[in-house]
Write a structure and sequence with these properties.
The complex is a heteropentamer of chains A (513), B (167), C (517), D (627) and E (97).
Chain A (H helix, E strand, L loop, with lengths): L1 H5 L1 H17 L6 H25 L8 E9 L4 E7 L1 H24 L4 H20 L3 H10 L1 H11 L4 H34 L6 H4 L6 H18 L8 H8 L2 H11 L1 H14 L1 H27 L4 H22 L2 H32 L10 H4 L1 H15 L5 H13 L4 H26 L16 H19 L2 H22 L3 H11 L1
Antiparallel strand pairs in A: 1-2
Chain C lengths: L13 H8 L1 H15 L4 H5 L2 H20 L4 E3 L4 E3 L1 H27 L5 H19 L3 H19 L6 H32 L4 H12 L11 H21 L7 H8 L2 H25 L8 H21 L4 H22 L1 H31 L13 H4 L1 H15 L5 H15 L3 H26 L3 H6 L2 H4 L11 H19 L2 H12 L5
Antiparallel strand pairs in C: 1-2
Helix pairs in contact in C: 2-4, 2-6, 4-5, 4-6, 5-6, 5-12, 5-15, 5-22, 5-23, 6-7, 6-12, 7-8, 7-12, 8-10, 8-11, 10-12, 11-12, 11-14, 12-14, 12-15, 13-14, 13-19, 14-15, 14-18, 14-19, 15-17, 15-18, 15-22, 15-23, 17-19, 18-19, 18-22
Chain E lengths: L1 H20 L3 H25 L4 H31 L13
The chains are: A mainly alpha (513), B mainly alpha (167), C mainly alpha (517), D mainly alpha (627), E mainly alpha (97).
C-alpha cells in the first residue's frame, strides 16, 4: 500500500497507457467489449485518483506525492511529479470527465470505436501528466502531445467542418505553445548562465533572477502559449470551431480539461517565474479577460447553433477565471480555482446535453427545437440545473466561484470587477433564452414528437456532474480547505512584488529592452 | 615569360569565350581543345611538365574525344530551337560578371601566404616533377588514389547503366 | 632532403593504424565488389542474393565500427581520421544505408529492376559517405564529395526508361557539378591563403595567426581576405549538398524523380554526410576568420526554413513535400551549428540522428504506398488509408509528427536541443523564427494525416480504398524489409523522444572528439 | 443544538424535503403530493409559530448550521438569525404559503405538472424561509436569487405558452439587473468591512465614511428595486401574471416581492446612516406607488390590475422604510401580504370559475354566481382601499401619517392621491366583474370554486379583517410597533418628527380619499351617471398613456434591447467572423499565396535553377562587403 | 601569381556564364570542364608560388574526377537524348513545382 501511495501519480499517469495496450489486443469488431472495458478502465482510473484526494494532506502547501528520477541529466531534466491543491482537483476532474465522456459516447461514436477509446485513454495520460509534472520539459512534453489525440478526436469523429476545425485547433495552439517553449528555453538558459547548472526543475527555476524588462518579454512569450489555450479574447477563434465540430466527448474534454491548462500554466509557471512582469501586465490581461467575459456573452446571445453558444459561453467563463487569477488576492484565486472545476463540470454537462439533443435530432440549430420539455422531462430538469449552474445561480457551483472571484478582485480592480459582474446578467440572457427556445413552447418540429427521454446510461453519465454542482454549491469547504494553503503560499511567494507601481514599471521595463 | 603568359592568356580567354558562344557544339569542342592546350602551356611555364602532359592526354585526348564522339553519335549539332532568349542571357552574363568582380575584388585586396615551402623551382627541377608527384601520390595520398580508382570504376558502371538501352 | 618531409611522426605502426582506420569502409567496398561480382552469374544475380549480401556487408561494417569504437585513429598521413565523431556518424550512415537496402527489395522488383548493380551502388554510396565523414584533407573532401555525388547521380537516374528519373539525374548532375566547381575554386583560395590541404594543419596555421603568430607562420593580413573568398566559395558546395536555400533547387526535382529508396537514401545519408563534414570543416577552419560566418549561416538557416516550409505548404506530391520539408529541416539542423559550442554541435548530431530515423521512416511508408500500385504519390490518394492500413498509417503519422517536432518524438528533442543551444549563444530571434516555422510546418505534415484519417466522403468513394474494404496490409506491397525498417525507425524515434539520454551521451562523446586534434 | 435551534432548522428542512420528494418521485405520489406538500409547509408554519412564541418571550439568537465558504479572509457560514423581524416574516411567509398550498390543490387539480408545481412551490417556501432567516449577506444573496429562480420557473410553469416562458425569463433577467447592483454593493461592503455578517457589518457602519455608506445602500437598494419591482425595473411583475394564480398570490404579492422591503428593513442600520440613500428609497417608492396606480386605472385584465396594485402598495412600503419608519413598512408588508394574497386567490377563483377568462369586459354579475368569492374579494378590496376596519387602513395610514409627520408633504400628498386612485381602480374591478350586467359568454358554465379553494380565501379574509387591530393604538403606541421596535433600535434617526398631527385628522383624510375613490367608481360603473367612454375621450392622451403602461416596455425594447441585439450581431458576424477570424484565416491564405510564389521558383527549368544558385553565390560573396 | 588567379577567375566566370546561358547539354558540360580547369590552373599557380606540390597532386585528382564526371555526364546525355530526342536542357521540365 505504501508503494501504491508513493508511486500513485505514476500509476495514475500510466494506467491509461497500460489500458491502451490492453485494448490494442482486442479485435476491432468487438465494439461492445471495447466500449465497456474502456469505460470500466476509466472508472478504475477515477477510483484510483480518489486515493489522491483521500491521502492528500490539506494542511500544507508543499507538493505531495512527489516522485523524482533523473531523466535527461544533460538538460537537467528529471521525471519530477508532485501535486498541490490546484493540481489535485484538476486531476480528479480529468479522470472524472474522461470516464464520463467515454460513458457518454456509447451511442454517439458509431465507427472506429477502438481508435476512439484508445485516443481518449491516451489523452487522459497526457492530461494527468501535464497536471502532475513539476519539470518544465516533462510538462511541455505532455502539454504538447496532448494536442494530437484531441486533434484526431475532433477530426475523425467530428461533424461539419471537422477537418478545418481540427487543423485550426492544432495550429493555433501549437503556434502559441512554440512561442511559450521559447520562453521556457530562455529561462532555462538564464538559470544556467547564473548558476552553471542545467535544470528544468520548476522549484529551482523559481529562483532565477530575471531583469524586469526581460520578464515582460518572457511573460509575453509564455502568455501567448497559455492565452491561446484558455482562450483569452483575441485568441479565441479556434474555440467555437473546435467545440462545435468535435464529438460530444471531445467537447467535454476540450472544455472541461483542456481549457484549464492555460490557467494552470499561468498559475504554475508564468506568474511565479515572472512575478514582476505578472504584476505589471495584470491590468492588461484582466482587461482582456473582462472583454472576454462580455464579448463571449454578447456573441453567445446571437448564436443560432447550440454548441457554438456553449462554446462562446466558455470564453465568457474563462474571462472570470483570468480576472480572479490576475487580481492576485487569496479570495479571488481560490474562486478562480473553484471556478476552474465548476467550468469543467458545468460546461462539460452542457456539452453532454447538447450532445444528447444532437443524437436525437441530428441538428444543433436552436430553431429546429422547441417543446422538448414536454417529451423529455428528465432531460429538461437536468439540463436546466446545468444551465443554471452555468448562469451562476446561487446554491449551485458556479455561484461560489464567480462570487469569490468578484469579491476578491473588487479590492484591486473595482472597475473591471463591476464590468465583469454585469456579465452575470448576460449569462442569464443567453442561457435562459437558449433554454427557452429549445425546451419550452409548443412543439413545432414534428421530429420532436419522436423525442425520447434520457435512458439510464445517460442519466448516470450526467448524474455525477449534477451531484457535484449541488455539492460544490452547498458544501465547498472540502475543496477550499485543500486549495487554501496552496493559494496562500502562492501569494506569499509574490507578495513583495505587489506594491511595485506596475504601470510605470511596465513602461520603463519596455523602454529598457 | 611575361609575353608568353599574355599570349597564352589571350588564347585561353578567347577560346573559352568561343566555347560558350559558338552555336555548333562541335566548334565549341574544338575551341575547348585549343583552350586546354593553352592551359598546358601554363603548366609548362609553372614547372609542371607532367601535368601539362596529363592535361593533353586526359582532357584534350580522352575527355574531348569522348565529347566529340557523343556529339557525332547523337548528331546534336542540329539544335531544334534557336537560343535567342536574350533576357536570360543578359541576366546570366550579369550574374557572372558580378561574381567575377567580387572574386577579383578579393584577389586584389588580399594577398596570398608567403612562400614557406621547400619545393622551389630549383628543387623540382633537380628531383624532377614526375618523381615528386609520384612519390607524394603513393605515400601521402595513397588512400585518395585508391578512392579515385574506385570512383572511376563507379563512373564506368554509371556510364554503362545510362548508356544501356534496357535492363 | 624531401624524404624528411614525409613525416615520420605518424608513428611506427603507420600501416596498421591506417588500415584499421578504414576497415568499416573497406568492408563495404569489398561487399560492393562482391555484389557486383554476382552479375557474372545470372542465376545468382536474379535471386535475392545481392540484397542479402549487401545486408551482410552492412552488418559487418557495423560490427567493425562497434569494435573500433573508443579508438582514436588517424591514418594515411592524416588524410583520414577515426574517432568518436566517426563512430557516431558511421553508425548513422550505416543505418541510413541499411534502410536504403531494406526498402529496395520490393521496390526494385515492382519496377522490374532486380539488378545487383543497384545494391553495389548503394554500398559504394555508403562507403563514399563514410570516407567523406572521416576525410581530413581538402583533396579527400573534394574527392569523396564527388564520389558520393556521382553515385547519387547514377542512382537518381537508375530508372531506365523513366523520363522523370533521367531528367532528375540530369538536373542533379549539372547543378551538382556546377556547385562542385565553386567548391573546388574555393579550395584554391584556401590553399593559397594557408598553403595546407590538411584540415588540422590549416587549423593550426589559422590558430597561430589568430593568436598572433603572424610573421612566424608566414602570413599577412591579406590572407584573411583570400581565406574569406575561399571559405565563402567552399560553403557554396556544402550548402548545395545540405540543400540550403538558395542552393536547394535540385532537391525537390531530384527527390521527386529518383526511385524512392534512393530518395530516402539521399535525404538521409547524403544530408548527414554533408552536415557532418561541414561541421568538421566549420569547427576547424571557419571559426577563425574575420568574417562572422554565423551571420551567413543565420541567413541561410532562416531562408531555408522559411522557403522549405512555405513551398511545402501547398505541395500535393508526397515526395516533393518531403523534399521541401528536408530543405526546411536542413535549416533547423543548421541552427545547432550556429548555436555552436559543445552543446550546439552535440545537438546538431543528435538532430541528425533523429532526422535519419524519421525521414527514412516516412519515405519507407511512401514506398509501401507506392508499392501497392493503387496509390500514387498524390496526397489525395492517401484518403482513408488510416482505416485501411492502421499500423502503417499510424507509423506515418508518428514520423510526420516527429518531423513537425511534436513532443514524445525524437524530432522534438532534436529541435529542443538545437534551439536551446542557439538561445544559449544568444540567437533569440533565430529561435523565434524557427519556432514560428515549426508551426507553419505542422500544417503540411498534418495535412497528410488529415488525408489518411479524415477523408472527405467523396474523396473516399473515388479512391480505391473502399474497393477492397478489408483492413490490414496489402499482400505483396509490404515485405519484411519494409516492416523491419519501420519498426527500427519507430523504435528509435520514440526512444529518442522519451528517453534521449543515451543518444545525447553518444552525441556528446562524438562532439567532444571534434576538439581532439 | 438545543430545541429552538432544532426548530429553526426544521422550518426550512420540511419544504426542502418536499422539493426533493415531489421533484424526484412526483410520478409516484400523483395527487397526494399536493396534500403532503401543504402538510409540510403547514408543519413549518406551526414550528414558526412555536418559535415565534419562544422568541416573543425570550430574545433572538443566531445559529450556524455549518461553515460554508472560507477563502483567505472571506468567511461565510450557513447561519440563521432569529429575531423579531425574521420571526414575524417567518410566520407570515409560512402562513400564507400554507394557505396558498391548500388553495393550489384545488386550483391545479388535473394539471399534468401537479407534482412539479408543488415541488417548486416547496422550494420557493424553503428559499424564502432561508432568505428571511439568513445571517449574512452572502446567504441572503443566495436565497435572494433562489427565490428569483423559483419565480422564474413558476411563472413559466406552463412552458408551452410562449408568453409564459417569456415572462419567466424576463422576470429572471430583470431581477438579475437589480442583483447586479446588489452584488456590487456586497463587494463594496466587504471591501470596507471585511465581513458580511450582519452584526459585524452593522457595528462597523458608523465608522465608515458617509459617501461609502450611501454607495453601499444605493447598490443594495438596486437589488430591492429589482426584486420588489419598483420603477424602473417593474416591468417584469405585470408579465409575471402569466404564471398560475396561486403563484402570483404567494410569490408576486405576498412574499418574494416584499423581500426588497424586508432587506431594507433588515439593513436599516446602513440605510439610516445614509439620509441620501433613504431619500432615494422614498422617491422611488413614492413614484412607483403613483405610477403603478395610474396604470392600473385603465387596465382590463383583473390579474394585471391586482399586480399593478401590488407595485403601488410596495411603493408605499418603500416610502415607509425610506423615511425610517421601518415598523410601519413591515406592518404594511404583513397586512398587504394578507389582503393581496386574498385578492389574488379570489381573482384565481374567478378565473377558475370562468375557465381562465381574465378580461373585465367579458365579465359582470358574478356576485350572484360566486358569492363566497365575491365577498372575500370585496373584503380584500376594502382592505386595499384603506377602509376601516380592514387591515389596509391601519397599515397604510400608519405610513402616510409618518410621512406627513416627518415633513414630506409632497410625498404624503402623492400617497393620498394614490390612495384615491387605488380605491377607484379596485372598485372599478369589483363593480365591473361582480355587479354590472353580465357580459359573459352564455355557453360558459360559471361555478363557485370548490371548498379547498374557498376555505383559504375565507381564512385570509378573516385575517385581513382582524390583523389591522395589531395597529392600534395608532402610531408608536401600537402593539405591532411595541413588538418589533426592539429590532430597529440601532437605526440612526435622521428625520426628527416635524409635526405631531392628531391621528384622527390624517386618518380622516385617508378614509375620505378611499371612499371618494369608491364613489367615483360607483358613479361610473354602477350608476353610469357619466360614461367612462366620455372621460376616456376627454383625456385621450392620458388615457392612452395609462392604458399602454406608459410605453415602458416599448421604450426599453427600442432603446436598449434592439440596439444591443444589433450590436451583438455586429460583434459576432463582423468582429468575430470577419475581423478576428478573418485575420487568422488571412494569415493562412497569405501563406498559401507565398507558397504558390515559392513553388513558382521551382519551375522545372534547369536554367533558372542554375541562375538561383549563381545568385546565391553572388550574394554570399557580397556578404563580405556588407558585413 | 595573382595574375594566374585573375586569369583563372576569368576563365572560371566564362565557364559559369556558359553554364548559365547555354542550353545545349554538351556545351553546358564543356563549360563545366572550363570551370574545373580554371581551378586546376589556380592550384598549379599557387603551389608554384608557395613552393609546394600538394596543389599539383590535387590537380591530378581533379582530372580523375573530371574524367569520371565526363563518363557519367555523357551517359546521362545519351539517355536523355534517347528519351527526348534533343539535347536542349529546357526540355527537362517535367519535374516542377
Amino acid at each position: 500500500m505504501t508503494f501504491f501511495i508513493r508511486y500513485l501519480l505514476t500509476i495514475l499517469i500510466f494506467f491509461p497507457t497500460a489500458s491502451v495496450l490492453l485494448l490494442l489486443l482486442i479485435n476491432k469488431k468487438n465494439e461492445g467489449l471495447l466500449r465497456n472495458l474502456s469505460t470500466f478502465l476509466a472508472l478504475v482510473e477515477f477510483i484510483l485518483s480518489l486515493y489522491l484526494f483521500v491521502y492528500f494532506k490539506p494542511d500544507t502547501y508543499k507538493f505531495q506525492f512527489v516522485e523524482k528520477f533523473n531523466w535527461i541529466p544533460s538538460f537537467g531534466a528529471s521525471y519530477f511529479l508532485g501535486i498541490d491543491g490546484l493540481s489535485l482537483f484538476l486531476i480528479l476532474l480529468t479522470t472524472l470527465l474522461t470516464f464520463i465522456s467515454l460513458l457518454s459516447s456509447y451511442k454517439y461514436i458509431k465507427e472506429n470505436v477502438k481508435e476512439f477509446v484508445i485516443l481518449m485513454l491516451l489523452l487522459e495520460t497526457f492530461m494527468i501528466g501535464t497536471f502532475a509534472a513539476l519539470d518544465i520539459l516533462l510538462f511541455y512534453l505532455f502539454w504538447e502531445f496532448m494536442l494530437i489525440p484531441m486533434y484526431f478526436i475532433i477530426g475523425m469523429w467530428g461533424t461539419g467542418r471537422r477537418v478545418y476545425s481540427a487543423v485550426k485547433f492544432v495550429l493555433y495552439t501549437l503556434s502559441g505553445s512554440l512561442i511559450m517553449l521559447f520562453g521556457f528555453i530562455y529561462i532555462f538558459m538564464m538559470h544556467y548562465n547564473q548558476t552553471g547548472n542545467f535544470t528544468f526543475n520548476l522549484l529551482r527555476l523559481y529562483h532565477t533572477h530575471i531583469p524586469e524588462g526581460l520578464q515582460i518579454l518572457l511573460f509575453i512569450a509564455l502568455f501567448l502559449g497559455f492565452a491561446v489555450k484558455i482562450p483569452l479574447f483575441p485568441f479565441h477563434t479556434w474555440l467555437p470551431d473546435a467545440h462545435t465540430e468535435a464529438p460530444t466527448a471531445g467537447s467535454v474534454i476540450l472544455a472541461g480539461v483542456l481549457l484549464k491548462f492555460g490557467v494552470y500554466g499561468f498559475f504554475r509557471f508564468a506568474i511565479p517565474l515572472l512575478p514582476r512582469a505578472s504584476f505589471a501586465v495584470a491590468p492588461y490581461i484582466i482587461l482582456l479577460g473582462v472583454i472576454g467575459i462580455l464579448y463571449g456573452a454578447f456573441v453567445s446571445i446571437v448564436q443560432k447553433d447550440l454548441k457554438r453558444l456553449v462554446a462562446f459561453s466558455s470564453v465568457s467563463h474563462m474571462g472570470f477565471i483570468i480576472l480572479g487569477l490576475f487580481a492576485m488576492s487569496a479570495i479571488s484565486i481560490s474562486g478562480s480555482i473553484i471556478q476552474l472545476l465548476n467550468h469543467g463540470i458545468t460546461t462539460g454537462a452542457l456539452f453532454l446535453f447538447v450532445g444528447m439533443l444532437y443524437e436525437r435530432m441530428h441538428s444543433r440549430q436552436i430553431k429546429d427545437f422547441g417543446g422538448v420539455a414536454k417529451k423529455a422531462p428528465i432531460l429538461t430538469t437536468l439540463f436546466l440545473i446545468s444551465v443554471l449552474a452555468s448562469v451562476g445561480l446561487p446554491g449551485l457551483n458556479g455561484f461560489i466561484g464567480e462570487f469569490l472571484i468578484l469579491i476578491g478582485s473588487f479590492r484591486y480592480f473595482p472597475v473591471y470587477t463591476i464590468v465583469a459582474t454585469s456579465g452575470v446578467i448576460f449569462a442569464a440572457v443567453y442561457l435562459l433564452w437558449m433554454f427557452q427556445r429549445v425546451m419550452f413552447h409548443e412543439i413545432t418540429n414534428p421530429e420532436i414528437e419522436k423525442f425520447e427521454d434520457m435512458n439510464l446510461r445517460e442519466i448516470f453519465t450526467v448524474l455525477p456532474l449534477i451531484i457535484l454542482m449541488f455539492f460544490i454549491g452547498f458544501y465547498p469547504i472540502p475543496i477550499l480547505d485543500r486549495i487554501d494553503p496552496t493559494v496562500i503560499h502562492f501569494l506569499s511567494m509574490l507578495h513583495h512584488y505587489r506594491n511595485s507601481n506596475s504601470i510605470i514599471k511596465l513602461k520603463t521595463g519596455l523602454s529598457n529592452v | 615569360m611575361e609575353a608568353l603568359f599574355y599570349i597564352f592568356s589571350f588564347i585561353a580567354i578567347f577560346s573559352a569565350l568561343m566555347v560558350i558562344s559558338m552555336k555548333n557544339p562541335l566548334t565549341s569542342a574544338l575551341y575547348l581543345i585549343l583552350c586546354f592546350f593553352a592551359f598546358s602551356g601554363f603548366y609548362v611555364m609553372l614547372d609542371m611538365q607532367f601535368l601539362a602532359v596529363m592535361q593533353i592526354l586526359v582532357y584534350a585526348g580522352a575527355i574531348m574525344v569522348l565529347v566529340v564522339l557523343v556529339i557525332m553519335i547523337l548528331n546534336i549539332s542540329k539544335i531544334k530551337r534557336v537560343e535567342t532568349d536574350f533576357h536570360q542571357k543578359f541576366i546570366g552574363i550579369l550574374i557572372s560578371l558580378i561574381i567575377f568582380v567580387e572574386i577579383i575584388f578579393y584577389i586584389i585586396n588580399g594577398s596570398q601566404k608567403k612562400s614557406t615551402g621547400i619545393f622551389t623551382g630549383a628543387v623540382i627541377k633537380k628531383i624532377g616533377n614526375t618523381q615528386i608527384i609520384g612519390e607524394f601520390l603513393f605515400t601521402k595520398y595513397t588512400l585518395s588514389f585508391e578512392i579515385a580508382s574506385v570512383l572511376l570504376f563507379v563512373a564506368i558502371i554509371g556510364a554503362y547503366i545510362f548508356a544501356k538501352k534496357k535492363f | 632532403m624531401y624524404n624528411n618531409i614525409l613525416p615520420a611522426v605518424y608513428g611506427l605502426n603507420l600501416i596498421e593504424k591506417s588500415m584499421l582506420s578504414i576497415i568499416p569502409e573497406a568492408v563495404i567496398i569489398l561487399f560492393a565488389f562482391l555484389v557486383l561480382f554476382l552479375t557474372f552469374f545470372e542465376k545468382l544475380a536474379k535471386s535475392k542474393n545481392p540484397y542479402y549480401l549487401s545486408l551482410i556487408g552492412i552488418g559487418f561494417s557495423i560490427l567493425y565500427v562497434l569494435m573500433l569504437s573508443g579508438r582514436d585513429l588517424n591514418g594515411f598521413y592524416g588524410s583520414i581520421v577515426f574517432n568518436s565523431f566517426e563512430v557516431f556518424l558511421f553508425t548513422a550512415i550505416l543505418f541510413s544505408g541499411l534502410f536504403a537496402v531494406l526498402v529496395s527489395k520490393d521496390y526494385m522488383k515492382n519496377s522490374n529492376m532486380p539488378n545487383p548493380e543497384y545494391y553495389s551502388l548503394i554500398l559504394f554510396g555508403i562507403s563514399s559517405m563514410m570516407f567523406l565523414v572521416s576525410s581530413n584533407n581538402l583533396i579527400m573532401i573534394f574527392l569523396n564529395i564527388e564520389f558520393m555525388s556521382i553515385t547519387a547521380y547514377i542512382l537518381t537516374g537508375y530508372f531506365k526508361g523513366n523520363k522523370r528519373s533521367t531528367e532528375a539525374a540530369l538536373k542533379y548532375f549539372i547543378l551538382g557539378a556546377f556547385a562542385s566547381a565553386f567548391l573546388l575554386f574555393g579550395a584554391v583560395f584556401i590553399y593559397a591563403s594557408t598553403g595546407h590541404l590538411n584540415l588540422y594543419e590549416i587549423h593550426t596555421f589559422l590558430k597561430n595567426i589568430a593568436y598572433g603568430g603572424l610573421i612566424k607562420s608566414g602570413g599577412g593580413m591579406g590572407i584573411n581576405i583570400y581565406l574569406t573568398a575561399g571559405l565563402l566559395l567552399f560553403l557554396t558546395g556544402f550548402a548545395f549538398k545540405m540543400s540550403l536555400f538558395p542552393f536547394h533547387s535540385w532537391t525537390p526535382d531530384a527527390y521527386d524523380g529518383a526511385p524512392t529508396p534512393v530518395t530516402s537514401f539521399m535525404a538521409t545519408g547524403i544530408k548527414l554526410a554533408a552536415f557532418a563534414i561541414f561541421l568538421r570543416v566549420y569547427t576547424l577552419i571557419y571559426n577563425f576568420n574575420i568574417i562572422n560566418f554565423n551571420g551567413i549561416l543565420w541567413l541561410l538557416a532562416v531562408f531555408s526554413m522559411t522557403f522549405g516550409n512555405i513551398a511545402a505548404l501547398l505541395s500535393s506530391n508526397v515526395k516533393r513535400l518531403l523534399a521541401y520539408s528536408s530543405i526546411a529541416q536542413a535549416g533547423f539542423i543548421l541552427i545547432g551549428i550556429i548555436g555552436g559550442g559543445f552543446y550546439g554541435y552535440s545537438g546538431t548530431l543528435f538532430y541528425l540522428l533523429a532526422y535519419i530515423f524519421m525521414t527514412a521512416g516516412a519515405f519507407t511508408i511512401v514506398i509501401i504506398f507506392e508499392n501497392s500500385d493503387l496509390i500514387s504519390l498524390d496526397i489525395n490518394k492517401y484518403s482513408g488509408l488510416g482505416y485501411k492500413y492502421p499500423f502503417i498509417a499510424a507509423s506515418m503519422s508518428f514520423f510526420l509528427l516527429s518531423l513537425a517536432g511534436i513532443p514524445m518524438t525524437s524530432g522534438f528533442m532534436g529541435k529542443f536541443y538545437v534551439f536551446s543551444s542557439a538561445v544559449k549563444s544568444g540567437y533569440n530571434w533565430l529561435v523565434i523564427i524557427a519556432l514560428l516555422n515549426s508551426a507553419i510546418a505542422a500544417y503540411y505534415y498534418i495535412k497528410i494525416i488529415v488525408k489518411m484519417y479524415m477523408p472527405d466522403k467523396e474523396m473516399l468513394n473515388s479512391s480505391a480504398v473502399n474497393s477492397e474494404g478489408a483492413f490490414g496490409i496489402i499482400n505483396g506491397a509490404v515485405s519484411d524489409g519494409l516492416i523491419i525498417t519501420i519498426i527500427i525507425c519507430l523504435f528509435f524515434t520514440l526512444l529518442m523522444g522519451i528517453y534521449p539520454q543515451i543518444f545525447i551521451n553518444f552525441a556528446n562523446n562524438s562532439a567532444a572528439s571534434l576538439w581532439k586534434i | 443544538m438545543d430545541f429552538k435551534e432544532l426548530i429553526t432548522w426544521l422550518i426550512p428542512a420540511f419544504p426542502l424535503a418536499g422539493w426533493f420528494l415531489w421533484g424526484l418521485f412526483g410520478k409516484y405520489f400523483k395527487g397526494i403530493s399536493g396534500y403532503l406538500a401543504s402538510a409540510f409547509v403547514g408543519i413549518s408554519f406551526i414550528l414558526s409559530v412555536i418559535l415565534f412564541i419562544i422568541v416573543a418571550y425570550s430574545h433572538g439568537f443566531t445559529d450556524t448550521l455549518y461553515p460554508w465558504i472560507h477563502a483567505g479572509i472571506f468567511k461565510a457560514g450557513v447561519t440563521a438569525v432569529i429575531d423579531r423581524l425574521s420571526i414575524i416574516m417567518l410566520v407570515m411567509v409560512t402562513g400564507v404559503s400554507t394557505l396558498v398550498h391548500i388553495y393550489s390543490i384545488g386550483y391545479m387539480q388535473g394539471d399534468k405538472g401537479f407534482s412539479r408545481y408543488f415541488s417548486f412551490l416547496n422550494l420557493f417556501v424553503f428559499s424564502m424561509i432561508m432568505l428571511v432567516i439568513s445571517d449574512n449577506l452572502l446567504l441572503l444573496y443566495v436565497f435572494w436569487e433562489a427565490v428569483g429562480f423559483c419565480s422564474y420557473i413558476l411563472i413559466g410553469f406552463w412552458y408551452e405558452k410562449k408568453s409564459a416562458s417569456d415572462a419567466g425569463k424576463k422576470a429572471f433577467i430583470v431581477n438579475r439587473i437589480g442583483d447586479f447592483g446588489f452584488a456590487v454593493g456586497i463587494f463594496l461592503l466587504f471591501l470596507t468591512t471585511k465581513t458580511l455578517n450582519y452584526q459585524a457589518v452593522f457595528s462597523m457602519i458608523p465608522s465608515i465614511p458617509a459617501y461609502t455608506v450611501t454607495a453601499i445602500a444605493l447598490l443594495l437598494f438596486a437589488g430591492a428595486v429589482g426584486k420588489s419591482a419598483q420603477f424602473p425595473l417593474h416591468v417584469w411583475l405585470p408579465d409575471a401574471m402569466e404564471g398560475p394564480t396561486p403563484v402570483s398570490a404567494l410569490i408576486h404579492a405576498a412574499t418574494m416581492v416584499t423581500a426588497g422591503v424586508y432587506m431594507v428593513a433588515r439593513f436599516h442600520v446602513i440605510f439610516s446612516y445614509s439620509p441620501a440613500a433613504s431619500e432615494v428609497v422614498l422617491i422611488v417608492g413614492t413614484f412607483t406607488a403613483f405610477f403603478a396606480a395610474f396604470i392600473a386605472l385603465t387596465q382590463f385584465d383583473i390579474k394585471r390590475i391586482v399586480a399593478y396594485s401590488t407595485l403601488s402598495q410596495l411603493g408605499y412600503m418603500f416610502m415607509a422604510v425610506g423615511i425610517g419608519s421601518y415598523t410601519a413598512g413591515i406592518f404594511h408588508l404583513i397586512s398587504h401580504a394578507i389582503f393581496k394574497g386574498l385578492l389574488f386567490l379570489t381573482a384565481g377563483s374567478v378565473m377558475h370559475g370562468l375557465s381562465g377568462e381574465l378580461d373585465l369586459r367579458k365579465m359582470g354579475g358574478l356576485y350572484k354566481k360566486m358569492k363566497t368569492t365575491a365577498i372575500t374579494f370585496i373584503i380584500g378590496g376594502l382592505a386595499l382601499s384603506g377602509i376601516p376596519p380592514f387591515s389596509g387602513f391601519f397599515s397604510k395610514d400608519a405610513i402616510l401619517a409618518d410621512v406627513y409627520n416627518k415633513g414630506f408633504y409632497f410625498a404624503w400628498a402623492v400617497g393620498e392621491i394614490t390612495a384615491l386612485m387605488t380605491a377607484f381602480y379596485i372598485f372599478r374591478l369589483i363593480f365591473l366583474a361582480f355587479f354590472s350586467e353580465s357580459k359573459l359568454d352564455p355557453k360558459l358554465h360559471v361555478h363557485e370554486s370548490p371548498g379547498i379553494m374557498t376555505v383559504p380565501m375565507i381564512i385570509l379574509a378573516l385575517v385581513a379583517l382582524i390583523i389591522g387591530f395589531l395597529g392600534i393604538p395608532p402610531f408608536n403606541d401600537s402593539i405591532f410597533y411595541g413588538f418589533l421596535h426592539v429590532d430597529f433600535q440601532n437605526a440612526h434617526i435622521f428625520d426628527p418628527i416635524a409635526n405631531n398631527a392628531p391621528w384622527y385628522f390624517l386618518s380622516l383624510i385617508s378614509v375620505l380619499m378611499g371612499l371618494s375613490g369608491i364613489y367615483i367608481a360607483y358613479i361610473l360603473y354602477i350608476k353610469k351617471a357619466v360614461s367612462p367612454e366620455k372621460i376616456k375621450s376627454m383625456f385621450k392622451p392620458v388615457y392612452l398613456l395609462s392604458y399602454n403602461k406608459v410605453y415602458i416596455d416599448e421604450i426599453y425594447d427600442f432603446l436598449i434591447i434592439k440596439p444591443l441585439l444589433a450590436f451583438f450581431n455586429f460583434l459576432w458576424k463582423v468582429m468575430d467572423v470577419k475581423i478576428i477570424d478573418g485575420a487568422v484565416n488571412g494569415i493562412a491564405s497569405a501563406f498559401a499565396g507565398f507558397s504558390v510564389k515559392a513553388r513558382k521558383m521551382q519551375n522545372g527549368l534547369l536554367m533558372s535553377y542554375i541562375l538561383t544558385l549563381s545568385v546565391g553565390v553572388a550574394a554570399l560573396l557580397f556578404y563580405y562587403f556588407v558585413r | 601569381m595573382s595574375n594566374y588567379l585573375i586569369l583563372a577567375t576569368i576563365i572560371f566566370t566564362i565557364g559559369a556564364a556558359g553554364v548559365i546561358i547555354r542550353k545545349n547539354l554538351i556545351v553546358v558540360f564543356m563549360s563545366l570542364e572550363l570551370m574545373f580547369n580554371s581551378a586546376n590552373l589556380g592550384f598549379v599557380a599557387v603551389s608554384n608560388a608557395l613552393n609546394l606540390v600538394s596543389g599539383d597532386i590535387f590537380v591530378i585528382f581533379v582530372m580523375v574526377v573530371a574524367a569520371a564526371e565526363a563518363a557519367v555526364a555523357l551517359g546521362i546525355a545519351i539517355a536523355f537524348y534517347r528519351e527526348k530526342g534533343t539535347a536542349d536542357i529546357d526540355e527537362a521540365s517535367e519535374l516542377k513545382n
